[in-house]
Amino acid sequence: MRIAWLRDHPWHVDALAAAHVEAFGALLPDWTLAQAAGELRSHTRACAIPSTLLALDASGDWLGSVSLLQEDHEHIRQYSPWLASLYVRPQARGQGVGAALVARCVAEAAALGVARLYLYCTGTVADWYRRLGWRDHATVVLGPLQVQVMAVDCAGPER
């Protein structure tokens, strides 16, 4: 597995957008496939906010992705920037793909001078992030869901 910038592999945008809408649509009920693809296509720079990273297998097919965004939801703009839209294809789960994407995203944020990075999630996913060193920051209601906002310090003695 290798991690690369989506901007260098734009042929994956449509499939990735479809996976994102299916996985995260409950949080953004009016979000369309065209909007998701447009957002991903706008991530044209590496080592920047916004950007998207892909985990790729040996054949160049995508296994998962994660984005680094300035904002991730209009109702929680007070926290920024964000690790967002972590997604791992079902056939690649349980193989460390998600953890590798999260670690790379945090490292990229640190390289950009970001002191603290945020994410939000629901349910037991928060436990997985806690195991990666993220901590609970706030609980907020977004539409029909209560979500956990989590934070991690990007710059520190261990990085």
From TrEMBL:
Q: Which residues form a coiled coil?
A: none
Keywords, comma-separated and alphabetical? Acyltransferase, Transferase
> What enzyme class is recorded for this protein?
transferase
EC annotation?
2.3.-.-
User: One GO molecular-function annotation for this sequence?
Assistant: acyltransferase activity
Query: Which residues does the UniProt record annotate as the domain N-acetyltransferase?
Result: 3-155
Q: Which CDD domains match?
A: NAT_SF
What is the protein name given in its UniProt record? GNAT family N-acetyltransferase
